[in-house]
């Protein structure tokens, strides 16, 4: 897998630093509130796992599987819920945990959904933010780092279900995904 990576953007140690920083912000803002943290599968699972280990507050975890990519490298803009929450968001403070925010389409759809389900509040925590690709206006409340407009994989992010298990985030060589 390493041979398919053009360059490493963020090392395992840097990812840990991002998690510590984000956990401190969440602890400050949610002290005593017992928020519902919603992990967007599959990409955010490694990030959320490490993030919640840095929290010493009570949180509840749930998971959604949402797709707007299929097997490609570009968002289709058509957001599909493949697995819905097991927990009601009514009256809850919800933190959507994402691996990366690029077009914003998925988050806009989820925020509207949680609003109709009467969540008390909805905030977004994303490891990576790629504002250069934004097509929808969306607020990302907690950001680990802003990334350049390159195709990144690792630490949960994939291409065709591969590379999620890399311990770092790297740029995938273009020849891998342009075949």
UniProtKB/TrEMBL annotation:
This is Hypoxanthine phosphoribosyltransferase. Pfam families: Pribosyltran. SUPFAM superfamilies: PRTase-like. Keywords: Cytoplasm, Glycosyltransferase, Magnesium, Metal-binding, Nucleotide-binding, Purine salvage, Transferase. Its EC number is 2.4.2.8. GO terms for cellular component: cytosol. Purine salvage pathway enzyme that catalyzes the transfer of the ribosyl-5-phosphate group from 5-phospho-alpha-D-ribose 1-diphosphate (PRPP) to the N9 position of the 6-oxopurines hypoxanthine and guanine to form the corresponding ribonucleotides IMP (inosine 5'-monophosphate) and GMP (guanosine 5'-monophosphate), with the release of PPi. It is an enzyme of class 2 (transferase). It is found in: Cytoplasm. One of its GO terms (molecular function) is magnesium ion binding. It catalyses: GMP + diphosphate = guanine + 5-phospho-alpha-D-ribose 1-diphosphate; IMP + diphosphate = hypoxanthine + 5-phospho-alpha-D-ribose 1-diphosphate. Pathway: Purine metabolism; GMP biosynthesis via salvage pathway; GMP from guanine: step 1/1; Purine metabolism; IMP biosynthesis via salvage pathway; IMP from hypoxanthine: step 1/1. Its main location: cytoplasm. Belongs to the purine/pyrimidine phosphoribosyltransferase family. Residues 21-159 form the Phosphoribosyltransferase domain. One of its GO terms (biological process) is GMP salvage. Its cofactor is Mg(2+).
């Amino acid at each position: 897998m390493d041979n398919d990576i053009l360059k490493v953007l963020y090392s395992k140690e840097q990812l840990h630093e991002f998690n510590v920083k984000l956990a401190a912000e969440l602890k400050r803002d949610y002290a005593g509130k017992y928020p519902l943290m919603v992990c967007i599968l599959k990409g955010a699972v490694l990030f959320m796992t490490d993030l919640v280990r840095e929290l010493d507050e009570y949180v509840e975890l749930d998971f959604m599987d949402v797709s707007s990519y299929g097997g490609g490298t570009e968002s289709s803009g058509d957001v599909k819920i493949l697995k819905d929450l097991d927990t009601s968001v009514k009256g809850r403070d919800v933190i959507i945990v994402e691996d990366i925010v690029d077009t914003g389409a998925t988050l806009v759809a989820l925020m509207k959904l949680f609003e109709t389900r009467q969540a008390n509040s909805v905030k977004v925590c994303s490891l990576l933010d790629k504002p250069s690709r934004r097509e929808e206006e969306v607020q990302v409340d907690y950001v680990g780092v802003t990334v350049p407009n390159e195709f990144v994989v690792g630490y949960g992010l994939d291409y065709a279900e591969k590379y999620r298990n890399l311990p770092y985030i790297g740029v995938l060589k273009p020849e891998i995904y342009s075949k």
